[in-house]
Amino acid sequence: MNNYLRLLAIFIAIISAACTTNETVCPDYQTPKLQIAFFQSDSDTANFMGVRILNTETYLNDSSELNDTIYYNIDFPSLIQIPLNNATDAIALVFDLFHVEVTDSTITPLIEKFDTLFLKYNSNVILKDLDCDFYMEYLITDTLCSRNEIDSIAFTNKDINADSETNVEIYF
Questions:
Q1: What count of other Cβ atoms lies within 10 Å of the Cβ of residue 165?
Q2: Cβ(24)–Cβ(129) under 8 Å?
Q3: What is the pLDDT of residues 87-125, one digit of tens each?
Q4: Would strands 48-53 and 71-73 be described as parallel, antiparallel, or unpaired?
């Protein structure tokens, strides 16, 4: 009986030590986003670019959540941010590259090329503090890409977390 009382006292001490009596301020963890920076090496590179996520069963079937991250514009973007899906372990991006001629208000596509980037990643659920929520972090583990217009790819940070660091640099 004495041993049970000791175990109960130890258990209560551990539980009370784990719970804080003062209010804990949890950091505002944002959803980590894959950050891709783009660089053009010469003027022969396409002057219009679109970025699409391949609509496969292994990723999001509803692109409405990604409207702010899908990019179509007459200028090349310098940086895009794409939220990853923690229910999968990969993402495939298609870069639509166009040479266009702009006259008055008309845009005429002259040459169209596509490149695809496939990234494989691991998802990790992180519990920083018992008083705070869980958050996600990702780690890029493998990649494949086509090289129609892409010259090179550099991984500047394979850890995809709430920090605002560029993860991938793509050179055209």
A1: 11
A2: yes
A3: 888 888 888 777 777 777 777 777 778 888 999 999 988
A4: antiparallel
Cα–Cα distance between 140 and 119 in angstroms, integer? 7
Q: What tokens were used for 68?
A: 């702010």
Closest-CA residue to 50 (of 82, 68, 76, 78): 76
- Tokens representing residue 48 in the block: 């219009």
Helices (H), the chain: 2-18
Q: Which residues of the chain have pLDDT under 50?
A: 56-69
**Helix, strand, or coil here: 125?**
strand
**What pTM was computed for the model?**
0.69
DSSP string, 126-165: EE--TTS-EEEEEEEEEEEE--SS--EEEES--EESSS--
In the three-class reduction of DSSP (H, G, I as helix; E, B as strand; rest coil), residue 85 is classed as: coil
CA gap 60, 55 in Å, rounded:
7
Q: Where are the domains of the chain?
A: 30-171
Residue with tokens 């009370």: 16
- Nearest CA among 12, 29, 7 for reference residue 161: 29
Overall size of the chain counted in residues:
172
Structure-token pair, residue 46: 């396409």
